C-alpha cells in the first residue's frame, strides 16, 4: 500500500494561515508542535508534517474504506534529514507507515508506505505536461497496455487483461504527482511521476 501528497509551497504560503489561533493544536500532536516551534523554518516543517498526514490518510482510506479524517490522530516523526530528503515514520489509527519526502524551494513531495517496504522512490522525471495517460506512457511511468483508472473510487494502474496495481494521486497548485507500487523478482519498489500541470488543470488535494 502507498499514498503520496504534493504541496506547492508558493500556493500554500498564500492560501493557508497556519498561525491563526488554535490551528496547530487542532491539527498537530504536542510532539509535532514542538518540532514546528524549534524548526529553523516553521513553514516548511508545518507542510512537511501535513504532507505526511495526507499520505498516511490515503493508505488508511484504501485499507479501511473509511473517509474519517482526523489529522491530529496521525503523528509524523522525521528521523533522518539528508539535504533535500527526509525520512521517518507515521503512526496512528493502530497503523505504522514509513515515509520519504523530497523537499525543494518550490514543493514538498511525500510518499508513505506500509512498514517493511522502502518508501524511497525511483528517480522522478518532472516536466510541464497535461496529466493524462499519454503523458504517463511517454515518460515510462506506464507501458502502452496500461492506463490510470479508478476502482471503487480509488486510483489504480490497470492493464488490458484487467489486472491492476495500487496507485496514489495528488494535485496542489502547479504540481501533479502519481505513484505506483510495482514488484519485480520478489522486490517491491515505488515508481513516481510528477508534472508541472498545464493551465486550467483540475485536480483535488486537501489543505487546511
UniProtKB/TrEMBL annotation:
Pfam families cross-referenced by the UniProt entry: ACPS (PF01648)
- Per UniProt, which keywords does this protein have? Transferase
Superkingdom, according to UniProt? Bacteria
InterPro entries in the cross-refs: 4-PPantetheinyl_Trfase_dom, 4-PPantetheinyl_Trfase_dom_sf
* All residue ranges annotated as the 4'-phosphopantetheinyl transferase domain in the record: 3-112
What's the name of the protein? 4-phosphopantetheinyl transferase family protein
| Statement: the UniProt record of this protein carries the keyword Cytoplasm | no
MF-aspect GO terms:
holo-[acyl-carrier-protein] synthase activity; magnesium ion binding
Amino acid at each position: 500500500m502507498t499514498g503520496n501528497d504534493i504541496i506547492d509551497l508558493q500556493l500554500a504560503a498564500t492560501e493557508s494561515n497556519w498561525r491563526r489561533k488554535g490551528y496547530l493544536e487542532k491539527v498537530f500532536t504536542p510532539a509535532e508542535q514542538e518540532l514546528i516551534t524549534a524548526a529553523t523554518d516553521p513553514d516548511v516543517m508545518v507542510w512537511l508534517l501535513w504532507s505526511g498526514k495526507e499520505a498516511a490518510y490515503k493508505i488508511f482510506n484504501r485499507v479501511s474504506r473509511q473517509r474519517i479524517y482526523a489529522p491530529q490522530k496521525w503523528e509524523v516523526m522525521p528521523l533522518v534529514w539528508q539535504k533535500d530528503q527526509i525520512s521517518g515514520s507515521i503512526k496512528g489509527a493502530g497503523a505504522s507507515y514509513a515515509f520519504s519526502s523530497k523537499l525543494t524551494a518550490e514543493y514538498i513531495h511525500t510518499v508513505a508506505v506500509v512498514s517493511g517496504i522502502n518508501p524511497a522512490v525511483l528517480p522522478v522525471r518532472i516536466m510541464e505536461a497535461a496529466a493524462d495517460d499519454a503523458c504517463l506512457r511517454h515518460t515510462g511511468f506506464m507501458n502502452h497496455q496500461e492506463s490510470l483508472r479508478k476502482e471503487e473510487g480509488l486510483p489504480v494502474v490497470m492493464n488490458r487483461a484487467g489486472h491492476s496495481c495500487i496507485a496514489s494521486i495528488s494535485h496542489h497548485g502547479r504540481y501533479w504527482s502519481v505513484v505506483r507500487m510495482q514488484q519485480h523478482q520478489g522486490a517491491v519498489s515505488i515508481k513516481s511521476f510528477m508534472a508541472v500541470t498545464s493551465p486550467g488543470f483540475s485536480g483535488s488535494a486537501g489543505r487546511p
